[in-house]
């Protein structure tokens, strides 16, 4: 019931935003809401009598564009967003994907309506001073997206799980509340994480650009024929595949070209036990875990991988079309039910 109510509320908000975005263009455009979405379909609007399938998202960044290229739509696709980064706009226009933002910027090319206007006046929805989208914030958000029920754990417990300070947890939780990702849902001071899909999307670049670089051990090369047997030669405790090899293990859909591995082994053990050698141009990048609970990474059915959320985020951020396709499989099979 709550899910259905939230869905209806989101549809009403999307409608209001869309009409507001159209008004910002200050052009004589007839915009009509035509059809509500069925299951995975996009809502349909009419612009000057021509139908468009509208994809709503708070922000559009470059890593979102490959997903839009594979977005099923019965009519020309129109992206409606509060903020679209300049690079994302270029990519959308290059791929002839229509877009519209909250600042009166638009690229629309459909029958009977052609618009391209750019005022250069847009800015991110979230300020750069946000308490949430920081390295520490990303480490905590990972735990909350992975297990939303942990939102009501003690601050000390969340700090342990996220490998951040108790003070950082309090600051980030307040930020989540202030920015509308956290709500109080009963009189017992219990909280619930909401807008999880949006939070996931905002988390992806922070994980890749702030968290992973700070936990990077280095780049290495395989020795001998280890690369040919990577699926079986690294089945041991404290070693977990991520990125492309992690995706290959989860889906059997992708052959990895770049390798990512998390481990708690020492530098000496990496060379002696894993038989990897440091190489600035190596194919395999090693990271230390940024989480404090071992259940996030596991060995099951001879597949030692990190949590699918991490693998998904790495694939999406790569921008590679094949990786994006695999990421969608992982999302459908391992992530969607958490959101």
CATH class of the largest domain: Alpha Beta
The string of secondary-structure elements, in order, is HEEEHEHEEEHHHEEHEHEHEHEEEEHH
- Helix amount, in percent? 25-40%
Count of folded domains = 3
How many helical stretches? 12
- Classify the oligomer: single chain
- CATH fold description of the largest domain: Beta Polymerase, domain 2
Average pLDDT works out at: 87
Taken as a percent bin, the fraction of beta residues is 15-25%
Strand line-up of the largest beta sheet: 1-2-3-4-5-6-7
Major sheet size, sense and barrel closure: 7 strands, mixed
Number of strands: 16
CATH architecture group name of the largest domain: 2-Layer Sandwich
Question: In terms of structural class, how would the helical and strand content be classed?
Answer: alpha+beta
Description:
The protein has helices at about 1-25, 65-70, 85-95, 135-145, 155-160, 165-180, 195-215, 230-235, 245-250, 265-270, 310-320, 320-335, and strands at about 30-35, 45, 50-60, 75-85, 100, 105-110, 115, 180-185, 190-195, 215-220, 240, 260-265, 275-280, 285, 300, 305. It is α+β, with helices and mostly antiparallel strands. Strands 1-2-3-4-5-6-7 form a 7-stranded mixed sheet. Helix 4 packs across helix 7, helix 5 packs across helix 6 (about 165-180) and helix 7 packs across helix 11. The longest helix is centred in the N-terminal third of the chain and has 23 residues, at about 1-25. The radius of gyration is 22 Å and the shape is globular. The two termini are about 15 Å apart. The model has no long low-confidence stretch (mean pLDDT about 85). It holds the Pfam family AbiEi_2. InterPro entries: AbiEi_2.
